[in-house]
Amino acid sequence: MKKIAFCITCMNRLHHLQQTLEKNIQDNYLTEEVEFVLLDYNSKDGLEHWVNQNIQEYIDTGILVYYKTLEPEYYLRSHSRNMAFRLSNAEILCNLDADNFLGKGFAGFILEEFSKYDKIFYTNNYSLNDTYGRVCLRNHDFVSIRGYNEALQGYGYEDNDFQNRLISYGLKPMSFHNPEFYRFVFHPDADRISEEYMAKNVKTLYITYINPYTSGILLLYSNHSMEQYTMVDNSQIDLHTEFSRQNEQSFDEGRRVVINEDKLTGSWSEDIDTVCIQENGIKYKVSKELTTVDFKGQPFYKVEDNELRVKLFVLLNSAINYSEARKQIKNESLINASGFGRGVVYKNFDLSKEIILS
């Protein structure tokens, strides 16, 4: 068993791994203590070929292990991380995003810290940059809290939930501060969500203004289902107002975008000239030539700017995950009751032998 495993999940992010993976291995080349676990989450961008042709030498030395699963259709953040963590063979586990540079000596630093302290986990200093997801913890603590919460499927809040549960389990959060450990590949937000269900399946997105801190979001999916959410930006609300007292917001809620619990679902259809949205037996029709939909007496405007679409997907997914996590806490739900990190993988290009994670 190795001392520490850096667990990387990748779905169509080869362009990031080409910049970071070999550099990270070379900067932390401790073959007896360190392993890099790379989970190819059914990538279609040539990841397998690139690993085979360009960095096979690290697989041969045992510092890199390559796994591939052919099952996922969409990127599931929590599930993929749970798979990679379960596939590792190390005492300490560390999630490493494909766009992160570890920095020279990061492995040695973490090993030294975990040799000095019990009941800890390590992450960044809670700065909101692309190293936020780098969490290091002992393998048995990961198993004890039942991994990342797979009910949180889209982008956002899964790291917060994971760390909150580690703290509730009795672990102390520690932070690394060396600037060398905070480098990453800058990329647009679209890369974060491009392989997720919402981004790949929403055909049309509408937004409506309700008040300075509340917006309505209407999603028409390619399978002709419909969802409508109300998002509230609590960072724009004075927490001392009557609104806040009536809603009994937590401190965390007061700093983030949340969704109201009045999610609406329905369906939609179209013909040559018209789009028809149906919710609870009521139909709302609009000409395809218009960019505004009158839905439940509220004008919703079609979002055609791609950057705004991406931003709304990020905010909405994070708010949905936050809502689900709070609901589970309230209901005292068992996290991942049916298991976590389950699936079938193949190791180091050998498709003749399945590894079943049950």
Structure commentary:
The relative contact order is 0.14. This protein starts with a strand and ends with a strand. The longest helix has 26 residues, at 306-331. A hairpin with a 3-residue loop joins strand 12 (264-270) and strand 13 (274-279). Strands 8, 9, 10, 11, 12, 13, 14, 15 and 16 form a nine-stranded antiparallel sheet that branches. Strands 6-4-1-2-3-17-18 form a seven-stranded mixed sheet, with helices on both faces. The chain is of the alpha+beta class. Helix content is 30%, strand content 30%. It has two domains: 2-188 and 338-357, Spore Coat Polysaccharide Biosynthesis Protein SpsA, Chain A (Alpha-Beta Complex); 191-331, Lipocalin (Beta Barrel), CATH 2.40.128. It contains eleven helices and 18 strands.
